[in-house]
Design brief:
- Belongs to the glycosyl hydrolase 18 family.
- By secondary structure, the chain is of the alpha/beta class.
- It is 29% helix and 23% strand.
- It has a single domain, classed as Alpha-Beta Barrel (TIM Barrel), CATH 3.20.20.
- It contains eight helices and 14 strands.
- Helix 7 runs parallel beside helix 8.
Length: 339
């Protein structure tokens, strides 16, 4: 029993349901194969029965997204992203016993086939202790077995199984409650790949100084995309099963002194470029307003880094934040993962 072979490349993006008005699926730029996979965010299990629920609001949006994606050539796959913020307690309760895990898993497969989606992406933020990590590993194992069994019985292609995970293989940023490592063996064996959330390293929880919230490199600490991705690949998760996250948004600060405006400049709060190749990030400022973000140059540097390291690809959070598809096009145009 093992995960399906990962695709040759992942060029993905999350599609939040709240983006529907601004980015109708019919308006998504699928030209030039910018995307191979889209993740519909978010759907969740019923907190009592643990059956996966597609709400009446989600149903037409998901249907439009699947139709638009599958009508491409080649088709773009659509996965259900299950979770997001605020549902950790539901996952904790569901994963704690075999019968509740089984009910959840069975319902996910039924929902996937009913809605013609291609798989699942679990976004549990985050298991709080070692016991929940064990339960997460069991969930992955039993989910994979059920997917393989259903595929063998139905004759249909196995559903994909992925997970959105912390940028590093362990939790250590200020404010992180968990201090437990993921179960790498279960991840490597049972998942098609992981989506490493390589962003939000700095933000409103630390207003004392500016910080690139998705820096590729940081010479002074382990708070960087390069460190996080290396921690995953060195833990036994195959490189081709590690997919790098890219933010399509920025984080802003209000500077303490307009004359000090570099990365790490003193700030007095959260709040505009300069490209910093040393960190693989960009920032802009005007007066006391400062914002760090990814631009076409940093996306190029990061995607080429992922290729050089043999990673499985990249994804963006999120559609609706990439004006005129500039970053999505740059990711595809970086001569990377195009073969």
């Amino acid at each position: 029993m093992s995960a399906s072979h990962p695709p040759s490349v992942v060029r993905g993006a999350y599609y939040p349901s709240w983006s529907y008005e601004s980015v109708n699926p019919s308006k998504i730029d699928f030209s030039e194969s910018h995307f191979t996979h889209l993740f519909y965010a978010f759907v969740n299990p019923d907190p009592t029965t643990f059956d996966l629920v597609i709400t009446s609001d989600d149903k037409p949006i998901l249907s439009d997204l699947v139709s638009a994606a599958h009508n491409r050539s080649p088709p773009v796959m659509v996965l259900l992203s299950i979770g997001g913020g605020g549902v950790a307690a539901v996952f904790s309760n569901m994963s704690g016993a075999e019968d509740t895990r089984s009910r959840f898993i069975r319902s996910t497969i039924e929902v996937a086939r009913e809605n013609d989606v291609d798989g699942f992406d679990l976004d549990w933020e985050s298991p709080k202790d070692a016991a929940e990590m064990v339960n997460l590993g069991l969930l992955f194992e039993e989910w994979r077995a059920a997917i393989d069994s259903e595929s063998a019985t139905s004759g249909q292609r196995p559903l994909l199984l992925t997970a959105a995970v912390y940028f590093s293989n362990r939790f250590f940023l200020p404010g992180d409650v968990p201090r437990y490592r993921f179960l790498f063996v279960s991840i490597a064996k049972n998942l098609d790949w992981i989506n490493a959330m390589c962003y939000d390293y700095h933000g409103s929880w630390d207003t004392s100084a500016t910080g690139e919230h998705a820096a590729l490199y940081d010479a002074t600490s382990n708070v960087s995309t390069s460190y996080g991705l290396t921690s995953w690949t060195s833990s036994g998760v195959p490189r081709q099963k590690v997919v790098m996250g890219l933010p399509a948004y920025g984080r802003s600060w209000k500077l303490k002194d307009a004359a000090e405006h570099g990365i790490g400049a003193p700030a007095v709060g959260v709040g505009p470029g300069v490209y910093d190749s040393g960190t693989g990030s960009a920032y802009a400022y005007k007066g006391t307003e400062w914002v760090g973000y990814d631009d076409s140059r940093s996306v190029t540097q990061k995607v080429r880094y992922a290729e050089a390291k043999g990673l499985g690809g990249y994804f963006f959070w999120a559609l609706g934040q990439d004006l005129n598809w500039i970053l999505s096009r740059q990711g595809m145009a970086s001569r990377v993962f195009n073969s």
